[in-house]
Design brief:
Number of helices: 3
CATH topology: Rossmann fold
Strand content: 25-35%
Distance between the termini: 24 Å
Number of domains: 1
Mean pLDDT: 91
Order of helices and strands: HEHEEHEEEE
Largest sheet: 5 strands, parallel
Number of strands: 7
Radius of gyration: 15 Å
CATH class: Alpha Beta
Shape: globular
């Protein structure tokens, strides 16, 4: 739990350093853990700079490139972003960055709401194995894994502490 807190605080500092106009930054969390992570980063930025960063939710279900190939139908949630996005920096926030396909879907979803000045990417964990040319701007922890492993993240549970662990599949 402490390592996750430190990683998110570090990401907050890096976002502050990389974005001189913090009032134009939007943190867009990918459900479900990315939303909680975005809110925590915004809270750290508020504590450090006394600036309220707007947060939102970006649903990627209908923008995934595997929608027609999955056996189950995607669960569609509502996207909620502070509009307009023009002249703003939207930072996509996710718990684990893996192939890059979810990040690409998030970019497509964001662009359906408008054209931000910049889109950046923040991930609590980068496990490698990219299938697309996507690189995060902010990373809490690089965690090399094999393709046969899964990275699990627990965030925001009242009963159990935050945690990151690797499972063999």
């Amino acid at each position: 739990a402490e390592a996750i807190r430190r990683a998110l605080q570090r990401i907050a500092h890096e976002i502050i350093e990389g974005n001189p106009q913090l009032s134009k930054v939007v943190l867009a969390g990918i459900p479900s853990r990315g939303v909680e992570i975005a809110q925590r980063i915004a809270a750290f930025i508020h504590r450090i700079e006394n600036i309220d960063i707007e947060t939102g939710v970006i649903d990627v279900a209908m923008h995934r490139d595997d929608v027609g190939t999955r056996p189950e139908l995607p669960v569609v949630r509502a996207s909620k972003l502070p509009l307009p996005l023009e002249e703003r920096t939207v930072i996509i926030v996710d718990d684990v960055l893996y192939t890059g396909r979810t990040a690409r879907a998030a970019m497509d979803a964001i662009n359906s709401f408008g054209r931000p000045a910049r889109i950046q990417l923040a991930a609590l964990v980068d496990r490698g194995h990219r299938e697309l040319p996507i690189r995060p701007d902010y990373v809490g922890k690089n965690l090399p894994t094999s393709a046969a492993e899964k990275v699990r993240v627990r965030i925001g549970s009242a009963k159990e502490p935050d945690g990151v662990w690797v499972e063999r599949t």
